[in-house]
Amino acid sequence: MHKGKKLYEGKAKIIYAGPERGTAIQHFKDDATAYNNLKKSTIEGKGVLNNRISEHILNSLNQIGIKTHLIKRINMREQLIRLVEIIPLEFIVRNIATGSLTKRLGITDGTVLDLPLIEYSFKNDELGDPLVALEHITAFKWASIEEIKKINTICLRVNDFMLGMFRGVGIKLVDFKLEFGRIEINGKKEILLADEISPDTCRLWDVVSEKKLDKDRFRKDLGNLIQAYQEVAHRLKILPEEANISEVKFNKPTAVRLKKK
Ligand code: TMP
User: Fold this and answer.
1) 91 lies in a domain?
2) For the segment 59-108, what is each residue's pLDDT rounded down to a tens digit?
């Protein structure tokens, strides 16, 4: 598939122009960053796992009528996506208080919230993606009130779906981040779920042990990040039990190679 020029490079992904107008190729890197880029590393295999996990989740959401930018995965590290105008906001959905919420407000870590809480951050690396209120969003025209209402509804539907999906494989969905984009289809503006949903953008705890199966393993120097992401992929039945990411041929559109233990 023809890959055009680089349009944007973020911390964990690169977006290239796609083969047709209105399409793009999203490439998943192995780079990991935390604390607004203060902590950086490269973790071999992370991009491959996030590509597979995000493909699985976005395809599943598509099946329940949630429109996403994903057209299809094209190889181990890349997806063909619709090019959208990204809304410059991160939508954080929380079921259990942890991370920045507990630090900011002094809430006890692990407090189960009565209802899911949606927070908004302004996407701006230089400012460290600051938390903003609905009033900032409308005052600075980052999104309209109608768009936010639609997006909030989508966030809650995604949360309901993912809570069930993860609970079914023994994982608590603690919180996650979503991004959205605008696109014009047949002269009509639509909102599409964009970016990725993966252990990089969710907090996932084992139901029994509360073991962290997400990027907190990197943020908090817990180690074994790839093993944790593989565990998520295995439980979601994306990778067969025996698959070992170290045996996957990177950058090639081949299936996962298996070696029996
Ligand atoms: P936080 O507790 O650090 O605010 O993070 C809440 C959730 O959002 C957590 O699952 C990690 C995710 N997240 C991202 O994916 N990207 C980000 O830039 C931030 C700040 C959070």
Assistant:
1) yes
2) 999 999 999 999 999 999 999 999 999 999 999 999 999 999 999 999 99
- Taking only the tens place, the pLDDT of each residue in 19-40 is 999 999 999 999 999 998 899 9
CB environment 111-138: b (16+ within 10 A), e (fewer): eeeeeeebbbbbeeeeeebeebeeeebe
For ligand 1, say whether the CB of 179 is within 6 Å of any of its atoms.
no
CB of 92 within 6 A of ligand 1: the answer is: yes
State whether the beta carbon of 12 lies less than 6 angstroms from ligand 1. Answer: no
Q: Using the mean position of ligand 1's atoms as its centre, give its distance from the Cα of residue 144 in Å.
A: 23
Query: Ligand 1 center to residue 177 CA distance, Å?
Result: 6
d(CA 36, ligand 1 centre) in Å: 11
For the full predicted model, state whether its pTM sits above 0.90: yes
The string of pLDDT tens digits covering residues 184-240 is 988 999 999 999 999 999 999 999 999 999 999 999 999 999 999 999 999 999 986
Distance 2 CA to ligand 1 centre (A): 33
Q: How many domains does the chain have?
A: 2
Domain enclosing residue 71, as ranges: 6-84+226-242
Q: Which residues pair with 221 in a beta bridge?
A: none
The pair of three-digit structure tokens given for residue 233, joined into one six-digit string: 């992929």
